[in-house]
Every structure is written in C-alpha cells, then in structure tokens.
Amino acid sequence: MSSVRTAAPLHFVEHGTGTPVLALHGWTPDHRLMLGCLEPVFARRDGYRRLYPDLPGMGKSPAPLSVTSAAGLLDAVLAFVDDVLGDEPFLLAGESYGGYLARALVGLRPERVLGLALICPAADRLGATERALPDFQVLRPDPGLLASAEPRLAEEFAEMAVVQTPETLRRFRDEIMVGLDCADTAALERIAPNRLLDPEPSESRSFDRPTVIIAGRQDHVVGYADAFALLPHYPRASYAVLDVAGHNAQFEQPELFDALMLEWLDRVAAEM
Fold it and tell me: At the top level of its lineage, which domain of life is listed (predicted)?
C-alpha cells in the first residue's frame, strides 16, 4: 500500500506487474469496490499491474479543504496518473461516479488510455430527477437472509440489492459497506453540491479505442438508458445491459460481467 505526494494524495493498493490498469471506484465507497470487481477477472489474465486508488474523502485518501468540487477530484486523479505512471500507457476502468471521472480523464489524456471500461457509469445528468431510471425491483428476494444480517448492513443492502443471496450480501459487506463506513462524511457533503464537471465529459472528442459499457437493467441509481446514450462518443464500444442486475451488476451477474471484461481485455491486447 502506498500514497502519492500531491495536493490531495491518494492512498492506493497495487497488485500484479505488467501493463497498468487504473480502476476508479464510485461515490462514497473505496478501492475495495473495484478490487472486488476486477481481481476475479485478472485471476484469469496475467501481465497486468492493477492500481486501485481511494478517491479524495473516501477510504484512506484525505480531502483537503481545497477540494470542493469534481474538478478537485479529477485533479487528484490526474496527479496520481502523472506521479505513478508517468508517460506509460494504461487501461482505465471506472464504476458509477468513477466512470464519470474516467470519461473526463480519457478526454484529457486520450493518447495514454489503451482501453476504457465503464461499469454502471453515471452519465452526464447526475441529478437523480434528471436521470432515466427504472423502478427499484427485488427479483431474487430472501427475507430470511435480511433478518439474519446485522441491522444496518441489512438496511443498506436491501436498498440496493436486486439479488439477495448470501454471496451478494457477503460481497456488499466486504466490497462496499467497508468503504461506506470509513468515508469522510463532512468532506463529501462539501463536495457533493459540485459533483458536475464543466464542461461535461461527453463534450470531449470521441475515444476510438476498445471500450465496454456494462449496465444493470434494474439499476435504479444511474439507470441504463443514459449509458446507452454515451455510445456516439465511443465508436469502439460494446454495450451490454444485464437483466437481474442493479447498480452492483458486477456481483449480481458475475459470470456475465467477467466474460464481458475478459473480452474487452482481449480486444485491447490485440491492438497493443
């Protein structure tokens, strides 16, 4: 585990050697969300150096008072890239709000990014009232599971889970809840009103390298329709919307998720 010396230093975890992969988690959780997403995938592919930072105010990364907006978060990510990777090309993956920042990073460093993976990404219209959202549905309920879980965990899980099984509960606890519990609430409340970038990421030029966009059909947090609307900006993108999957599609449909990510890695590798 390391820290990068920047105005807003980012704590990060690193695994493996080879071509770098930068993974950006969503709003409030920490790096363990992306580590849980991607390590099962990279267990089947050698030759990648996976970098999992905590965004400012999340996990173990501080958010100085100077960080008041999305621009400050993006500046910290840019500094991380420059400090840790230098001029080395890398793959980029982002989940939810991390996908929003990843798209902005591509616009600023397009020559450096070998391929882009967007996992249940937040599109430009971040306000909940502006998104095209499906109604929340629980398609695989397990009331007994919720009754047996610690009350706060059960409450947080029940608000998100389309699939309620012991395995999805375990992954929610170990990959998401742990980040929620250690977030800097005061810092996030300071930044939250200014979470939009100006200009929006979609105003950047098109990105013409291998891309995958994975959405959950029952994702009531960011939806799937707004992610589909991103396709004109990514002419090399595969788009998949997974049924029986919400905002945590990576572990509600893990076999489909892993297959899509592995195919994306193969497309990137073929052009390196």
Answer: Bacteria
Residue-averaged pLDDT of the chain: 93
Vertex 179: Cα angle to 120 and 99 (nearest 5): 25
Across the chain, which distance is largest between two alpha carbons, in Å?
52
Q: How many CB atoms lie within 10 A of CB 19?
A: 19
The encoded tokens of residue 209 equal 């390298």
Q: Evaluate if pTM is beyond 0.90.
A: yes
φ, ψ of residue 108 in degrees (nearest 5): -90, -25
| Whole-angstrom distance, CA of residue 47 vs CA of residue 19 | 6
Task: Go through the domains of the chain in sequence order and give each one's CATH number.
Answer: 2-270 (3.40.50.1820)
Query: Would you call the peptide bond into 53 cis, given omega within 30 degrees of 0 as the criterion?
Result: no
Q: What is the dihedral of CA 159, 165, 170, 172, to 10 degrees?
A: -30
Contact 208, 236 (CB under 8 A): yes
Q: Would you state the structure tokens that stand for residue 21, as one six-digit string? A: 């992969």
pLDDT in tens, 104-144: 999 999 999 999 999 999 987 655 557 789 999 999 999 99
- 119 within 8 A of 103, measured Cβ to Cβ: no
CA 197 to chain centre: 17
